[in-house]
Amino acid sequence: MGLQRFERRLERLVEGGFGKAFRSGLQPVEIGRRLVREMDIGRTLGVRGTVTPNDFTIRVAEADLERFDGFRESLVDELCDTAREHARESKYHFVGPVSVVFAVDPNARIGDLVVDAAIVAGPAGAPAALVLVDGRRVQLGEDAVRIGRLPDCAVPLSDSQASRHHAEVRPTDHGFAIVDLDSLNGTSVNGVVVHEKVLEDGDVITIGETEIRYEES
Question: pLDDT (tens digit, 9 = 90+) per residue, 77-112?
């Protein structure tokens, strides 16, 4: 499913004006397929279950890399999302943030592709993030992340139903928990009103009319 979504998003990139770059040489969908394959090959058993690579260096010919210049940043974002989706679908875990970088391989010919995949631990252990409605990711770590209407919040909301300091996501011994800060309209997780709850991968936090997804990859 992750790869299918990746292919559909690539179609939108083509429609957005990058079609000429896809007509010859290395195809972006090949990169997505290879990345997913390297995740499967490199998986190993860890404390929390199956751990998979999260750090990827994509080595290609210089000519291929030049063709990707106009949309490389978007392609990196799509590849990172594909890795997260494949991990979620396969019940894999990461020990650090997902990273994808492109590099020129001086020995590569047009169409050649090498993906170096590694398991690289992050400074705060297993990664987690809040995914906002516009796709931005707020990485979680050792400090609490406050959500609310005031600009001093790490996640500021323009939602009129949100309190000034509405809720916080705090690190715990068991991951991260959402804590309602005695807000006026309350905080829900997956449609259930909560005061405090340890979050699980994929949980949807609702504050007023705003939805925020919690992801552990």
Answer: 889 989 998 998 898 988 888 999 999 999 999 999
Q: Are 216 and 201 in contact (CB under 8 A)?
A: yes
160, 182 contact by CB (below 8 A): no
Check residue 11 and give left, alpha or beta (phi > 0: left; psi -120 to 50: alpha): alpha
Query: Residue 147 in contact with residue 207, Cβ under 8 Å?
Result: yes
Q: How far apart are CA 88 and CA 50, in angstroms?
A: 11
Beta bridge partner(s), residue 214: 130
Which DSSP symbol is given to 19?
G
Sheet holding 49-51, edge to edge: 44-46, 49-51, 92-93
157: tokens are 């909301």
pLDDT tens sequence across 17-54: 455 555 566 888 889 999 999 999 999 987 768 999 99
* pLDDT given at position 204: 96
Per DSSP, helices labelled H in the chain are: 2-13, 28-41, 62-67, 72-90
Question: In 60-90, which positions are buried (b, 16+ CB within 10 angstroms) versus exposed (e)?
Answer: bbeebbebbeebeebbbebbbbbbbbbbbee
